Fold:
Amino acid sequence: MFFKHIVCIILSFLFALVLHAQEEDNALDMDAKKRKERYFLAAQLEEIKSEQKKTKKILDKNGFFISGGIGSGEFSQNLDIHYPLMFALKGGYQKSFGNTPMGVRVYGEFDLIGIPVKPLNFYHTTSINLDATMDFLLDKNFSYGVGFFAGIGLGGVYGYIDRQVLGLWSSFFNFGISAIMNIRHRIEFGIRLPSASKLKVRNFEDINASKMFFASYLYKF
Structure:
């Protein structure tokens, strides 16, 4: 009887140990599960905050802008080719499409070029343009990145000769790349190709403008 009593006590003790170990394992599993759930919820919350920040930054891209820059154009008269200094000014409105990198902008542009060829003194263009844009924000705060644009414009090219104005209608093709800084600031490098570029000057060789290059700063209000 005594031996059986001892065995029962030992078995009860071992059973209690097993139950306690199982409870500890269950508690550890529950704790690990809770930690996993907290980690998952924290990751979801961080993702939501990131998306909200991205949405806000993208919305910050929408609005009116103004841009000024310098560049040059390739002008030829007979066999002579010149690359005079160009001043460019444009202003308009840009709009992004949701959380996508794509967008669009519409703007007016004025380019003024002093040409060191006779008899033309100045050459300028005026145009209304529509560009498709694509911006890739690369930092975690969605403030800095790189962008691309391509579009078409419609306007005119004009030349001034001794108080006379020569002009003709033209379309323009625009291409370029942007460096985005803190959303509101951009440095752009691009090229403009006028479809109608040859000004026929009476008693002189035709003056032809085949392409224009520019570097500009853009500020979004």
